[in-house]
Amino acid sequence: KEFILPGGTRAAASCHVARSVARRTERDYLHLMQGETIPAEGLHYLNRLSDLLFVLCRVLNRAAGQQETLWQR
Predict the structure, then answer these.
(1) How far apart are CA 62 and CA 17, in angstroms?
(2) Which member of 5, 10, 35, 50 lies 3.0 to 4.6 Å from 69 by CB, making a disulfide possible if both were Cys?
(3) Using CA of residue 40, residue 24, residue 22, residue 73, what is the dihedral sign?
């Protein structure tokens, strides 16, 4: 299993930022679910949105011929 560091083209980097916002919103939504009655589907949507943005980052970098940077332990 590899971890891809955020970056690449400007468009891909913007997608990484959007993904981090989606992940933060997902955590906030989960916290809100503990005190309020709100649908769990919202949490599922936010998780899938984060996945979509990650794939979009990879597609944008690949289309631009940008090499992905893997995290080295």
Answers:
(1) 18
(2) 5
(3) negative
